[in-house]
Write a structure and sequence with these properties.
Elements (H helix, E strand, L loop, with lengths): L4 H53 L5 H11 L4
Helix pairs in contact: 1-2
């Protein structure tokens, strides 16, 4: 099959656009995962700091609650 220069350029442009969209989508998903991981880390750090402070006051904070809260709230923007 012989393609004209115009057809070849069109096919190349289409492929490049598709690849660029895939890269943008991967970057968006990677960014979202990083945000969610940071949020969980922040919550666990806050829980740990609260538990440390609570131990001096005689208060215990269950870490399971904090992790579940982080997991359920990941789906909210």
């Amino acid at each position: 099959m012989i393609l004209t220069d115009k057809e070849e350029i069109g096919m190349a442009a289409s492929l490049l656009q598709e690849i660029s969209q895939d890269e943008r989508e991967r970057a968006r998903l990677r960014s979202q995962r990083m945000y969610e991981a940071d949020r969980i880390s922040d919550l666990l750090t806050a829980e740990e700091n609260g538990a440390t402070g609570g131990r001096t006051e005689g208060i215990s904070i269950p870490s399971l609650f904090v992790v579940l809260f982080a997991l359920f709230s990941m789906n909210t923007p």
